Amino acid sequence: MTEEFNQRKANQQVRLLHQAIYAGFSEIENMSLWHETRTDHRALPPADANWQPVKVGDQWSGRDDYYWLRFKVQVHASKESSTVLRLDLGRTGEGNNSGFEGLLFVDGKPRQAVDSNHEEVFLGPEYDGQTVDLQLMMWTGLEGGGPKKIQHYTFTTASRGPERRTVRLAYRYLSNIVNLIPELSEDNPLRYSYIRLVKRAFNGFFWATATPAATATAAVNALALIKAFIARHQNEKLNFSIDAIGQTHIDVAWLWTYRHTREKARRSFATALRLMDRYPDFKFFYSTPQVHKFIEQDDPAMFKQIQARAAEGRWEPDGGTWLEPDTNLPSGEALVRQFLYGTRYFEEKFHHKQTVMWLPDVFGYSYALPQIMRGFGIDRFVTIKISWNDTNRMPHDLFMWTGLDGSRVLTQFLTTVERTEDYSQAKVWNYTYNGEISPHVALGSYHEFKDKDKSNVLLMPYGFGDGGGGPTKEMIENLHVIDELPGLPHAKNKTVADFFKDLDETVKANQEPLPEWNGELYLEFHRGTYTSQARTKRHNRKLELALRRAEILATTAYVEHGTPYPKAAFDRAWEILLRN
């Protein structure tokens, strides 16, 4: 007879433990709201802004509208406990490409994104004893590609309280363990060891009579049980590892304008910088020089922080190209310029040599790319998009891609599964570059990886994209727990460069040649997209040819007549064209 386990009841216990984190929180008072009226709303509200009182339960709405929420908080914090703000002010839309997004300013300085993925703000000992002034710039968002509509939101939660670090940690372990149990087979003895552990841990919580002090004591006892369990089963880690890459994928133009892209990047980058403050092992990857330049122009202070983190090796500016471009329509010259301008910018601003072509989300890959990449000293390529094929399945996820002239680049297809996909029933297609961190995703991504005989290290980017704000503290903490729990792989925050170093060592140790793909990487899913917006595509090609002719004429004029070469003007023109 198998050990009885009620998954529904265990999930209920986890939810109660999560609620206990916020026991005793008090509502934030004296909030006020201003409907933004300026064209340029990046600066803080003016002195004559017309603030209106607002409270929990009130509503706000709009389409591509901006509001500012203002309030003050008295901070009581120490090394052991921060003051925590909990802000549920609206729901970010499906796929994180519509709906509410916000950027919080503390005493006039941008701190982090606030959205439905980032509802908590931690104010630590640097603010202890202070009354801080908080102002949140809130964008109503758009409709995510459907018919135009007004978005409606409710101020659901605006509260503050102590961090309750022990209860949070117990919740983090137990939520991951409860999610792990159904991933383990019924023939795996570890499954039943975990069931007994969960029962013993939750037996210490008496929710009907729970006080914050009693819950904290039960959390301490639960953590002691969990730590002892991990020590007893420390040799039962799985023999593969996850190199987790904190990142956010932001389409430079999709269902929004460039203005929105600049704002999405600023929110996401602010959050990544705060996570680096809180988690010393956290690293962040971002591929796009154009977006870095947006930040350089819009928020020079933030850009300096990014440069400092890059110098530490914690902010990784890599990816090869000016942005993540389509590679089928541009001319060969335009593709070369993507690499020229991209590699040059990262070298000038970050002293960082490009090592990888990072293109998770474009509609197929030209046969010419390996040759162009090798010309810029780039010999690694990463994508997930070919997994979206609707007819044929690519035979490998790890291989050498050979181009027109015989140039070869090491290619890694990501196999990160969605949080809710059932990989046990059928092959999961449509992997994601917006990964979440959970036992299901860790095990499912390895299950789907087709080249286990060649490598036992997985590349797993994580973080909400397209305005979802990037990584969360929950993802980082889940990674720490997964790295400890028996029955799961080792998992660490890494850089993309770290991953390829680990992969190179693994491949060399196997002493077997990797499979080879010779030809273009054709995506079978987004058929027909190249026939849309045809006028724009035609103009792009005409501009490519016109810029080439203009450069030839300018060079001739310089050589024959000494006419100054307008390099700055050409650079500006190419950057605009490459962005498109």
Automatic annotation (TrEMBL):
Q: Which residues cross the membrane?
A: none
Q: Which protein are we looking at?
A: Glycoside hydrolase family 38 central domain-containing protein
Q: Where is the signal peptide?
A: none
Keywords, comma-separated and alphabetical: Glycosidase, Hydrolase
Q: Does the keyword Hydrolase apply?
A: yes
In this protein, which residues make up the domain named Glycoside hydrolase family 38 central?
A: 524-580
Pfam families noted in UniProt: Alpha-mann_mid, Glyco_hydro_38N
State the organism of origin.
Answer: Lacticaseibacillus jixianensis
